[in-house]
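G.,

No rush on this.
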Amino acid sequence: MTLDKTPVEKLTEEQAAEELARLATEIAGHDRRYHAEDAPTISDADYDALKLRNAAIEARFPELIREDSPSKSVGAAPSSAFAQVQHARPMLSLDNVFSDEDVVDFVGSVRRFLNLPADAELVFTAEPKIDGLSMSLRYENRRLVTAATRGDGTTGENVTANIRTISDIPEWLPADAPDVVDVRGEIYMRRDDFLDLQKRMAESGQTFANPRNSAAGSLRQKNPEVTKSRPLKFFAYAWGETSEPLAETQFDAVRRFRDWGFPINERMKRCASLDEMLAQYRAIEADRASLPYDIDGVVYKVDRLDLQERLGFRSRSPRWATAHKFPAEKATTVLKAIDIQVGRTGALTPVARLEPVTVGGVVVVNATLHNEDYIRGIGNDGQPIRGGRDIRVGDTVLIQRAGDVIPQILDIVPEKRPADAKPYEFPHVCPACGSHAVREEGEAVRRCTGGLICPAQAVERLRHFVSRNAMDIEGLGEKQIEFFFNAEDEALRIREPADIFTLKARQQASLTKLENIEGFGAVSVKKLLDAIDARRTVETSRFLFALGIRHIGETNAKRIARHFTSFDAIRAVATEAEIPAGKGDRGNSAWQELNAVNGVGEVVAEAMVEFFNEAHNRDAVDALLREVQPADEEKVGQVETQFSGKTIVFTGSLERMSRDEAKAMAERLGAKTAGSVSKKTDLVVAGPGAGSKLKAATDLGIEVIDEDEWFRRVEG
């Protein structure tokens, strides 16, 4: 296992892109060994750490998400040793959560999507998460016709002959079963059966690492007689395609499987509240060691199937279910020092330097401390954490590698605190440039005010500017940027983006030639200068993203570029926009226009305005525009419908769907959704209680419809 210890918040875009590429390759290899070869080379906790590291980087850099991202994949490609089966409905995986707070967030996200108030009934099922091999059993006219592994989620391996040897799985279903139904569940092996099998196989020199590998390897035998000799079991808990509804709830549908002769897990329980869900999790966790089979968590699912239908799916997982994994390993060690790192945006982030300690098979030497409040024992809500205990250099600390891929310090051991340990004083000046470091109201982060004079920010801004998803200038990596930034000779120096594009001219006029410097050669220099020249024309979205404006990631850059088409238009509206003075002030028309871009709220709009209000930023952009020409961006629709390309605003209290659900529906139909009304708005869908947006639409003569009319048009 290869897990970078660099905190995610400290990664540059180039570093993040490189690590995402490495993680995609490494995780794909582990998926192949786990799902297809039944020979994993790392523990589940280590695998989760890799997946979570990937997810954490993607969350910070959504614009870097790869087509082969592990977050988009399910399982692994089916083995060529078996015929392939196309699943009628994909076999998706579940998102994982690791803490009670994560479960609170999951339940909250379901309520928000469904637009359910906090006191509305919302029932979940909670059941053990079996550590086995996922299986789909297809019955037609109530007879088993095919059995397939998950594979890559779309295509699995045909293991029908082997499945027919497992006594838990009925060949025929009773008369009340649907004509077509895909019953899904988990093939597993009990621990006592696994130990007995290991004893028998030891005589022939063959062994499996654990019951899960043993079950998967036993099922993937070319000879069904070998599978028949192995003690495999099955739990049914889900379904794919079905020709008629099975029930109204998840709980009743699974109980129906039991009536058909399938084993189900009797530990599945309905939970009418968050407290009941967590109580069931703790009860199952407490019994984990005594259960006859391996589990690695508890699965929560929305019970009502009509709500599951409304919630739908993300690319690789359902919105209506999640897996609450059991905690990973923890360890204690000594905090040797606290270092402050300065990021591209000037954020000062504390990093704990630890006495090396092994946690879950990985040697940990660094851990995140989040921010100055966390060190003082204060949470994001301003309330005490860890009982109000602060963290000091010299403390013995408890660390964990679970929910955070970057190890984090959970607590200290008070009785082991040295007598001379002093409270940590968070610096109020930037350690990189000495500029004042300020903390804005409502923010947990302290930031350097040095801007472009701060070497930490300047180098990071340049790294970002040339990174793959920004200007993408090949040959200007991290080492090269630092070399040019620190160069004493002016002919080689790069301190701001425009300097990159004047490097060739400065070289030609200078006696100092780059090709004569160690580490460079005539060929590599030519390639570098050609790569720079190749980026003198670039898409507006790339150009905007490359500027490093706070809150403008690749996704928002694309949204803004597609909305305004040209960089000149973007700059004009951001320069003309006036940030509202206070409550009730809607700002001028340029401000409203900027806020009307789908996904751009006041925080993003304010960052845009502040960037172009700064004289040194305008000067830097002007210098850059003398060298680079941003190309106009095409406006891209999604599907051809009556709503394609139209801008729609939803306002008021929608009664049949949540605001998020409404926006998702409109975007699936090719429309753009905006958060405010402007002259470019095409349609406003207004529910009860609509206020200023409805008035603005009326004043501008924009068509307004109610929620019922919206559904009539959608159905049409």
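When you get to it, here's the other one too:
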Amino acid sequence: MNRSFRKQLGARSMAVILIVGVIAAALIVRLVYWQLLDGGNLSRAALAEQFAHITLPPERGVITDRNGNLLALEQSGDALYAMPHSIKDPATLAKALAPIIGVPEGNLQTELSSKQAFLWLSYRITAAQAAKIEALGAYDGLGLEPDSWRTYPDGNLAGAAIGFVGVDQQGLAGIEESYNKQLAGRPGAEIIRVDALGNQLPQFGMHFQPATPGDGLRTTLDSAIQTFAQQDLAAAVKAHHAKGGRILVLDPSTGAILAIAQYPEPSPGNWQHFSMNAWVDQPVEYAFEPGSTIKPFTASAVLAAGVATPQWKIDDTGSIVVDGIRIYDWIKAGFGVINFDTALAESSDVAFGQLAMDLGVNRYYAALHLFHMDRPTGVDLPGEASGIAPPKAQATQLDMAEMGFGQTIAVTPLQLVAAVTTAADGGIWHTPHVGAALLLPNGATQRLTFPSQRVETTKVSREVQTAMLDVVAHGTGNLAAVKGYTIAGKTGTANVVSNTGGFKSGDFLASFIGYGPVPNPKVLTLVQIDDPIGQFYGGDVAAPVFSQLMGQIFTYLGIPPSGATLHQTTVQTPKLLGLSLADASLRVEKAGLLLSPSGSGSRIVSQSPAPGQQILPGATLTVKLAGASQQGVPDLLGLTSQQVYQSAAHFGYAVELKGSGVSVQQSPAAGTSLAKGKTVVVYLSPPP
């Protein structure tokens, strides 16, 4: 080997050593980067490949009315999941599974063939669907997890107020939205170890964190009063060929909302079939020109400021000129010389226009703020609108006059009823609300409270009430009278504002607001009918609806007529559970009561009011019928959970419920001989 060759070989060796050194250095740098700088990300990625994470949805809390009747609840079932890496024949499985869960076969095959470690295939799997899936036989990579979804047993009862939840179980409207944080609960988790193909490694066990159920909510709503309101409203809208309407019913001593209705009313259980406009809670979210129903507020403001007294008088000639514009009364001839009470009873626009101008801008706007007519009331429902009035600095005398009798100003129905509660409750303004108490998972109850404040003296409120009594006794609201009861109220007929400005020709909002029985009012109600055809005055259209509804409510609540004592007039409700309709009718008739049945079947399974309650003669008992077996175990099918408990207890049996909704299966079957005190297992499912 000559010197030249050795030199060349040495050079090549050095080159190889240099190249190897560079590669080694690069690998070392890369290893340092992987270990020190990117180690955390790589560790997390590795763990993600080794574990499958399953989110366990929580059970959403129930919503009930004030008597515990269920308005919204969770239906139990299953959710279907897949681990595609473990599925050997996606095409065959997709073909068998598609018709059961209602997913196109091609879409399902694509999902089952994916490279994901875990995915959900379908939610809301009923017991019948689960049985069919299990009948397919064991499939690796396919499984069921407990699931639940929202159901509404009473259809569209208070639909807009209750709202609905979306596919992700989040409240999107109404009570479901405003109390979503309390109702929703917290999700749990199930984490399992898998191999590279996604197969579970059972030897490593699993981590399980149970979901935390949401709180329940007892509302102030009363299902019976809500039903009366919706039925009466629908009948009035149809009778007058109107475009729609609203009814609000409150307890004026607390601000508790007993009923909140609109027509048409959406159905929470079928929320997808309604436009988002249908879910606008009109009494809360829409502001209307109130017309003369605002006059009790104007009356409160001028009396409180000393601008007028009950002895105040005006010569109403039928019109008044303000800023060069002539304003007419609804009767152009006018009312002549009238006092304060007569001005309200006859709904004189001239009188209340003059009173508002005498009150002045500063005091009028201060009263608007005090009574929450220019700001939200704070109701526990979403989307509340504020009142609309001309900017204070720009308000003219004409604006003042028109606002005094309910034009050039817009308020929500909720703002209006909250303002009138001050006359009914001695000058106290209450925050209107639908929440009564949270029903905690541990069985405890957490009462909800809402603020109240004095906004006027008791003397002023009594003076306004006296004038409102005259409205019904011998004024424009005589058709709102309820036989045997003393009622205070106010009619209203307002022009409807068009979207382009001005008023719609021939379109009116007919209203009546009132409360009773005086002197200790228990119920305050507002009725509004949109654009009635033919008669359009509030006293002709809305007042009769008010009268009928208040009569129903007084009877239902067992409120005796004025001057009667509870001891002299009440009777005890008979026990009707287990009776046939014919036998129950005889017993109810003998007690001097009326009967309102629902459902089908031969046996009464629930009644309201409950047996042994003191109610007025002539009051109505509501009962529900279902299929019957008078021997052995009773027939409990087709009932809500509360009715199951009530009926089983009547026949001397304990009950164990599985699921939620209405009963679809029971064990033992109806008619089975079973010793009293034993337990009947009842399976519930959503109503169809």
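DSSP finds 21 helices and 29 strands in the chain. Residues 3-37 form one domain.

Enjoy the weekend,
O.
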